[in-house]
Amino acid sequence: MRNLCLSIALFCATLPTYAHGPTPQKAKESIVIHAPVAKVWAEVKQFDAIANWHPDLKKSEGDGSNQSGGKRTLTFQNDQSIVEELDYYNEQEHEYSYRLKTENPQAFPTSSHTVELKVSDGDGEGSSTVTLKSRFYRGDTGNTPPENLNDEAAVKAMTQFFKNGLAGLKQKVE
């Protein structure tokens, strides 16, 4: 019996290891802005105009559409760019969601991402809360990604992108 157990253990140890793909990561950031929802929404509602308030971007260009399927190209300060596509837009609820359409890990270390932006009433009179949340996968979906394209790099980049954007928006609107 002991030999059988040893044989099974050796057999199992020599089986190839089957690694699974990456797991989805998440990021969420919010900020309170001392301005009414209408004023904050007026600044963020044009999907392709994010570079007007986001300091990480050199420029943003798009088709001007605030409807599902609308596209924008974001050019980062390093001159690398990605393309995103609008999935959902609701003027009355002050929210929209979009996804990565064309990836570029040199620009942003995700292979796919979806993001939701929402502007809601804040805690005090005349204030707003802006929330960004995302679900995404790292830039290299292989089993052994380099450090700059692993889960930690993707989480760090998305979180910092949200924080920088929200700070830029607050500075512009207040």
UniProtKB/TrEMBL annotation:
Taxonomic superkingdom: Bacteria
InterPro entries from the UniProt entry: Polyketide_cyclase/dehydratase, START-like_dom_sf
One Pfam assignment: Polyketide_cyc2
UniProt keyword terms in alphabetical order: Signal
Chain intervals with Polar residues compositional bias: 63-76
Region annotation Disordered: where it falls in the sequence: 55-76
This protein's name: SRPBCC family protein
SUPFAM superfamilies membership: Bet v1-like (SSF55961)
Extent of the signal sequence: 1-21
